Amino acid sequence: MAAMTPVLLRTTPWRHQKEALEFVRRLWASGRRGAMISAAMGTGKSAMAIYIALEHGFERILILCPLRVVQVWRPQFEMHAAVPFLVVPLDDSWSSVRAKRDEAEIDAVKAEAAELEALLLPQFEQSGLERVAIDGRTVYVERKLWAKETAA
Questions:
Q1: Cα–Cα distance, 152 to 150 (Å, whole number)
Q2: pTM, to two decimals
């Protein structure tokens, strides 16, 4: 696994963080798929986790943390990652584990749809299709077809 490109980062890893990342690289290269980074408060463990996620191209990450720091993760991703991440904090406002899982899955689907729309929008608009909102959903139709249906 090669080191991540600076394009993915908004911050530069400190020397001890680079050492931790190299430790994880060596484990990964040897076939191990897990690591524990034990470091004191304020040393950038969150940043290290984000750097590792970026380097490996992880699509889904489960972060287990004390309830008091659940809300910290969204700003941490925004601070360290130059690419968008969907962070779904599942704190004690959810009634059950199932409700948390369902909400996380719904948010993931919404994020994938938004990403897909952002990728396809320029292609659709360049192809002569028109963007129209119907029942809160975005659809694309041929301009001629739309004109016929609305005129009828």
A1: 6
A2: 0.60
